Please model this.
Amino acid sequence: MEEAFDLVVVGSGAAGCGAALAGAALGLRTVLVEKAARLGGGTAGSLGGLWVPCNHLMADAGLHDDPAAARRYMDFLGGGYARPEMVEAFLRAAPAALRAFAEAGVSFRLLRGLPDHYWPTADGALGDGRMVETQPIRRAALSAWGDRLEEGVHNDPGVSWGDAIAWGGIGARHSWPAEELEARRRDGLLAAGAGLVGQFLARLLALGVPVRAGFRAERLVVEGGRVVGLLGAAQQGGAATLLRARAGVVLATGGYEGNPELVSRFEGYPEWMSIFPRSVEGDGLVMGSEIGAAVWRVPNNLAMLVGYAIPAPDGTGEVFFSAGLRGLSYPHSIVVNDAGRRFCDESQFQHVVAALTRFDLKAHRHPNLPAFMLCDAQFFRRYRFGNRPIGAPVPDSVVRADSLAVLAARIGVDAAALEETVARFNAHAIHGEDPEFGRGASAFARSTAGDPHAAHPNLGPLVEPPFHAVRLRLGGISAAGLLTDEHARVRHVRGHPIPGLYACGNAAAPTDAGSGYQAGVSLMRGLAFGWLAARHAAGAAS
Model:
């Protein structure tokens, strides 16, 4: 079976949806295919923020940005690992792509009150205006696709990141307006990452772009040295289908976080757990490598998260729950290693990541792995654990005990050291202080907890039994991907672009950001380079 298109886009996260919408807006006959039965990939379960310096919404709101300052901030994030031409491509394309998508009908708004983080004092950082999100959209606007989006385990229905900030922060869930939450759930509103995918999907459907879920891409088809299509099949026993692509194929399949072999090859960290849907397995990297594509890896990947395992919503196995903004920074909790010692500022998960990934040459191990999040009964009364409602029974997977000594024995931690650590932490926490690691010193850290009853937003003693412990896991955005140029063309191992092949999002190496991590960069990178890919493909086809 064979079908003909101009542009074939593989993957339905932000990058894929962006490339498909850009192609369709340029008049290309475009098809969007997705391996999973549900659309949205890792994007749909995210907070959905987009980091866009010098964007048009800032200007409309009377805010000022400086391209040179944005460049200095990007240079800081890259840590010397970014490719200058790719930084420039991103800085040029991001605001232009945002405007183009807005003109195509995607509804955006500024995400106010969120400074550049997690490094607000870095050269070139801006206090407000660079973060953008989409307006919520009703499921009904997506026809039958409205109930076929990935939604992850983190977000409340219809609640955007901006809403959470306006209502006191993610940690202030206990004080969010209950009637409003119920109304949004009842109305079928999609917000945050699901809303981002929904906004783009609505425009794709309006333009008549065919969307095919459950279609597994198997390999790229090359004729005369050019990629001319994609061979794949429907997951449920469908016949092999060749999707011909006159202008090009865009790989937006995400990273390889769910592929243990590729994780071992390119990441190498113990305690790794995928933060994305199981369908994210490195398909784009494999297909590109088969035809000679170059692979590039960030030597020091800081696009990492810290969390723990919770039961999967469908009852099959476990999924990663990110605790960086949803637990680690809240009062009445700390993080310790197996020596029973604290080792970082828990209120900023990038500090936790750096400490967890440190390697001790003398001991010849990661000294802070395994690590455990500890909390007392006060924590469970005031905050969510995982995606359970506040006050819900503590999951059986969480170790608990009526004393710290018994808890230490159950998790294999030095009991005397743990008791000493907690006593020292408590003595200062009751006064809102942490002289050891400066927990809660940053404005961003203080904004995440949002507990009006706490003496300090991030500090509270662990004094009320039972005490609880959960083992922390590392997860993140893949360090490696297909090497691309400033037009999102995939490069061959010999250095030249592979005609007809593009990659964007996490399928492409993060050469514009290097080792750095800034919320919203990953999603906007996907949209920006997806837009560039479609523009180049349209020009090449004409």
User: Anything to note?
Assistant: The chain has a mean pLDDT of 94.
